[in-house]
Amino acid sequence: MVAGNNPPHPAAAQTGVKGEVHQDRFVGGQDLTRWDTRPGRLLASVAKRISGLFGSHAVLIITLAVGAALAVSLAAVFAQVYESVVEADGVAGLDHPVLDGAKTLRSPGLDILVTTYTDVGGTVGMPVLALAVMAGLAFKRRSVTPVILMLVAGLGSLLMTIAGKELVGRTRPDLADAVPPYEYSASFPVATP
After folding, report:
1. CA-to-CA distance for 158 and 152, rounded, in angstroms?
2. Within 10 A of 26 (CB to CB), how many other CB atoms are there?
3. Is 60 exceeded by the pLDDT of residue 16?
């Protein structure tokens, strides 16, 4: 979106957060800083009161708190769904046919391709990619906010992965069915017979 396509609200020219990108305020021409409905104005007034308590980083703190609440809530819902499926043996009923089908597609070239793809999202590739994006955003915005948000998101993702694997505790397929390099941590959703 080009900043020139959306003229700023008159009051916005005098105010703003250092590092804010102008077009971040607009979605489809709608100024996200203006609330025209009664519930919107109520929400904005509550946010303004809360920002008085937390100071200049109120939006960041509120965003992190709401994100944490959503993550915990969705994890609780997921746990209930997962428990229901496992008790009915539904996941295990899918695991074995999918694993058997995947083994029929194996070839040395495909194994290398899938392993490379996995490594990009693994413990080395993803942090390198995230750090590059984080540095680019921080430099572009001249703000530490992207750094804080990405570090919290990365740490939260790591903690959810570790906790999820620990809670679910499903074993990986036998090493005879695996492709190197082998993983020894718990797995989800593939289970062994």
Report:
1. 10
2. 18
3. no
Any idea which residue has 């490594």 for tokens?
119
Residues 6+ apart with CB under 8 A from 174: 192
Residue-wise pLDDT for 41-52, tens only, equals: 888 888 778 778
Gap between the Cα atoms of 67 and 75, Å rounded: 12
What SS3 string covers 54-111? HHHHHHHHHHHHHHHHHHHHHHHHHHHHHHHHHHCCHHHHHHHHHHHHHHHCCCHHHH
| DSSP designation for 8 | P
Cis peptide before 181 (omega within 30 of 0): yes
pLDDT computed for residue 90 by the predictor:
59
Helix (H) or strand (E) holding 27: strand 26-27
- Determine how β-strand 30-31 pairs with β-strand 26-27: antiparallel
Residues of the chain with pLDDT > 70, as a percent, come to: 77
Instruction: Please give the pLDDT value at position 20.
Output: 53
What is the chain's Cα-based Rg?
23
- Give the span between the Cα atoms of 62 and 45, in whole angstroms: 14
Model confidence pLDDT, tens digit, residues 158-169: 888 887 777 777
Tokens of 160: 């959810």
What's the chain's length in residues?
193
| This prediction's pTM | 0.54
